[in-house]
Design brief:
heterodimer, A: FAD/NAD(P)-binding domain, FAD/NAD(P)-binding domain, 16 strands, globular, B: Elongation Factor Tu (Ef-tu), domain 3, Rossmann fold, seven-stranded mixed beta sheet, binds flavin-adenine dinucleotide, binds iron/sulfur cluster, binds FE2/S2 (inorganic) cluster, binds magnesium ion, Helical_ferredxn (chain A), FAD/NAD-binding_dom (chain A)
């Protein structure tokens, strides 16, 4: 076996073909690929890769198990700390996390940790009877989890296994959070991956109530005072879309990325009219922003039939916050990048429809507080980018529904819930919070990590309560 | 699943469902709405809570069959169920004893006005209601409105019932007669709400309208329901649906309501092409 400085490639759909369908872009390693990639791992004693992983998956151990052909054992290792490996293997920004710290990255390409994690999860899912119903101990205490994104699902799973009666309340009609309504099918298959994980949770006794909006259908105080929940974990995410505040944002054809992606992912507008929710795309679509959300919206627009899908981003390529792999895939599929470009107005026609984005070119000036060079306008560079649809993907903030209806729950200036980073404890006794509602829009693995820590802290809190009562 | 306990046809193509939804009934207040989904393929359809019974655990919705989703819903019967009902959404109507209030409902808008009029009456107001429709066969909830109003005025466009003309004619007459109106609540077609706003504006009579932009989630997540109110862009599902009529950009609202007209027509065509006129894509 020759040692390779490059990662084994993961088979992918041809860019031309996949730009027109919603099937998963990457196809996953074969057993042979996985074995060969696993062999690249040096099984380092100090395993620097683990430091890069927010939940410190035991990377050398699970890769060794793959090398030994035991995907089931590998997945068990990963699941000790990461309850959604099939998701993380696909969507973690590995180049910023585990793989960034891999020793091989110094000389060549890091071990494909994410790809191997995905391989283990997909293999184990196919071959092993996923989860046996286990009789977990019943501690007789009820915990409510608000929101069913990665933070909420992780906490729910851990708490159920610890013996608590867990109910997840979800505002939408389907659980999964951003995994279901935001991240597109072509990056994260809903039925095979997300639904399977949620079904597993149900199997271990987690109750999931959909169509339940905290702050509207019920309040946190009611759950605790009237319905007997002794602890609550708030994991409502960063669901409030930001707009730019420029003229023309209420024109027809202007979407927040949340709406554009929700119509397509959650509501399956790509199957319209067989599915009842429509979507408007047109031939030329501009997406404003440079993160994962923007890449997802632009690639979705292509798949919905746009001839041109632009990314309009005010900094340069080096600053694009999206995962490298997504940028690479987007380019392959034909997304057109208008970098160092800032929209200053959205222009409409007489019928109230967007017809163009008025933009100005930017150049990079002095570094700002974040150390990134600040974009400044190039005088006289205004131009119109003709479009029939504009998608605003400049970020999301915290939805205030829960905070504004819960007594004694403190928030920061931006409206995020203030919680202890190690325990998720908030200013209100018995109420914990984690994930994007605390940190602002972040990543799946960080949200999961927060769910894990909160579950442990809730267990401690309820144990104290329980033993205090019986003593 | 949310079972349909009672179905009534109030007028041609106007259906009333009383739904079993105890959690929602417990919290529902006048001015709020639910979002329903017929089945797995269904879109999310916002509908005002036209009535609720906390003891029975029911909420009532009244809808007009205007397009694919509402027509498919109209085919359901007592004993059938809606897959999803979520709510109560939106802010409740601000109810207190204002004095004399005028509650105006136009067409299907009478349904949402009814619980508001009742709430205002219970709070001690003198309630004058004006309800209107194109003609008498499609005028709904007349008896119910009479029961919660001190005075009920009826208008029809064709004069088949009550005074011929528009609800705004009646409103002008009240103002001209010197009635001291503390508040006007008007719900109906956007054109009607805009006309009411124009009638009360010169007199600076506080006027509240309930807006119905196109919605998806109803929780402030998608931003699709945004409307311009004064200098600000508001999300109708969480900041509303009720707003100060004198601040609302009605033209913008009307334009946004038409965003999917071509697709909606296409969908209806698709449905009527199915055998027997019953829509395949909504069968369960
Ligand atoms: C389009 C898109 C692409 C992304 N791509 C990536 C990626 O490639 N890699 C990555 O690591 N991260 C990515 N992210 C970020 C990642 O998805 C989030 O950081 C993560 O999902 C946060 O998890 P969470 O559990 O905190 O919240 P969410 O996933 O947002 O879930 C919150 C849930 O709470 C529900 N909820 C909200 N309010 C209430 C209420 N009042 N009552 C009941 N329920 C409520 C919501 O409906 C939702 O289901 C992406 C995000 C988006 C939007
Ligand atoms: C807060 C609120 C309360 C409402 N209350 C009632 C009510 O009590 N009774 C009633 O009959 N109608 C009510 N509506 C309007 C109702 O939601 C629409 O008539 C319905 O969605 C039409 O769906 P369709 O598929 O049958 O028709 P379509 O042919 O798809 O649409 C017909 C028209 O309805 C509007 N519409 C379409 N989709 C939506 C949507 N997702 N959200 C809002 N409007 C939409 C558009 O203007 C469209 O042109 C309310 C709307 C809102 C926002
Ligand atoms: S969870 Fe994410 S960061 Fe951690 S090892 Fe897996 S892919 Fe890497
Ligand atoms: S640093 Fe790289 S080579 Fe070393 S154990 Fe981690 S993945 Fe393997
Ligand atoms: S309907 Fe989505 S924000 Fe109001
Ligand atoms: Mg429709």
């Amino acid at each position: 076996m020759s040692f390779s400085l490059t990662k084994h490639k993961m088979p992918e759909q041809d860019p031309q073909v996949r730009a027109k369908n919603f099937n998963e872009v990457t196809l996953g390693y074969s057993a042979e690929d996985a074995l060969n990639e696993a062999k690249r791992c040096l099984n380092c004693k100090h395993a620097p890769c683990r430091q890069g992983c927010p939940v410190q998956v035991n990377i050398p151990a699970f890769i060794k198990q793959i090398k030994e052909g035991d995907a089931g054992a590998a997945i068990a290792t990963i699941k000790e700390v990461n309850s959604l490996p099939a998701v993380c293997g696909r969507v973690c920004p590995q180049e910023e996390q585990c793989e960034k710290y891999c020793v091989l990255a110094k000389k060549g390409e890091a071990v494909g940790i994410g790809r191997l994690e995905r391989y283990a999860a997909d293999r184990a899912g196919n071959n092993v009877q996923a989860i046996r119903p286990v009789a977990y101990p019943d501690k007789g205490q009820k915990v409510a989890v608000i929101g069913s994104g990665p933070a909420g699902l992780t906490a729910a799973g851990d708490l159920a296994k610890l013996g608590y009666k867990v109910t997840v309340f979800e505002a939408l009609h389907a659980p999964g959070g951003v995994l279901v309504y935001g991240i597109p099918e072509f990056r994260l298959p809903k039925d095979a991956v997300v639904k399977a994980e949620i079904d597993n949770l149900r199997k271990i006794g987690v109750e999931i109530i959909v169509n339940a909006v905290a702050g509207k259908t019920f309040t946190i105080d009611e759950l605790m005072e009237e319905e007997g929940y002794q602890a609550v974990f708030i994991a409502t995410g960063a669901g409030l879309p930001y707009f730019m505040g420029i003229p023309g944002e209420n024109l027809n054809g202007v979407y927040a990325a949340n709406e554009f992606l929700t119509r397509c992912n959650l509501m399956k507008a790509y199957k319209f009219p067989a599915c009842g929710t429509p979507i408007h795309v047109g031939k030329r679509v501009a997406v404003v922003g440079g993160g994962n959300v923007a890449m997802d919206a632009a690639r979705t627009a292509l798949r919905l039939g746009a001839d041109h899908a632009y990314i309009v981003y005010r900094r340069s390529e080096a600053e694009l916050p999206a995962r490298q792999e997504e940028v690479h895939h987007a380019k392959e599929e034909g997304i057109e990048f208008q970098l160092l470009t800032n929209p200053v107005a959205i222009l409409g026609n007489e019928q109230g429809w967007v017809r163009a984005l008025q933009c100005v070119r930017m150049e990079l000036g002095e570094p700002d507080a974040s150390g990134r060079r600040r974009p400044v306008e190039v005088k006289g560079s205004e131009f119109e980018l003709e479009v029939d649809t504009a998608v605003i993907a400049i970020g999301q903030g915290p939805n205030p529904l829960v905070q504004s209806t819960t007594k004694g729950l403190e928030t920061n200036k931006k409206g995020n819930i203030i919680a202890d980073p190690e325990t998720g404890a908030t200013s209100k006794a018995g109420v914990f919070a984690g994930g994007d509602i605390v940190t602002g829009a972040a990543t799946v693995i960080l949200a999961m990590g927060a769910g894990k820590k909160a579950a442990a802290a809730i267990d401690q809190y309820l144990t104290a309560k329980r033993t205090g009562q019986t003593e | 699943m949310y079972k349909i306990l009672v179905k009534k046809e109030l007028a041609p193509s106007v259906q009333l469902f009383e739904l079993s939804a105890p959690r929602i009934a417990r919290k529902a207040q006048p001015g709020q709405f639910v979002i329903v989904r017929l089945n797995e393929e269904g879109e999310r359809v916002p509908l005002t809570i036209a009535d609720f019974d906390r003891a029975k655990g029911t909420v009532t919705i009244i809808f007009q069959e205007v397009g694919a989703s509402t027509k498919a819903m109209g085919l359901l019967n007592e004993g059938d169920a809606l897959l999803d009902v979520v709510g109560p959404l939106g802010k409740p109507t601000h109810i207190e004893n204002f004095g004399t209030v005028v509650c105006i409902g136009g067409g299907i808008g009478i349904a949402p006005v009814y619980p508001i009029a009742r709430g205002l009456k219970q709070a001690g107001n003198k309630v004058i209601s004006i309800i209107g429709a194109r003609s008498k066969d499609i005028l709904i909830l007349e008896d119910e409105m009479k029961a919660v109003s001190d005075q009920l005025l009826v208008t029809t466009d064709d004069g088949s019932k009550g005074q011929q003309g528009f609800v705004t004619d009646q409103l002008k007459q009240l103002i001209d007669a010197g009635v001291n109106i503390a508040l006007v609540v008007a719900i109906g077609p956007v054109i009607m709400m805009r006309s009411v706003a124009e009638v009360t504006r010169p007199y600076a009579i506080e006027t509240v309208v309930s807006l119905n932009p196109i919605m998806v989630d109803g929780t402030g997540m998608c931003g699709g329901c945004r409307v311009q109110v004064g200098a600000e862009s508001k999300f109708a599902c969480v900041d509303g649906p009720e707003f100060d009529a004198h601040q609302v950009d009605f033209a913008g609202l009307m334009a946004r309501q038409k965003m999917y007209l071509p697709q909606e027509k296409h969908h209806q065509q698709h449905c009527s092409d199915q055998q027997g006129g019953s829509c395949k894509c909504h069968s369960h």
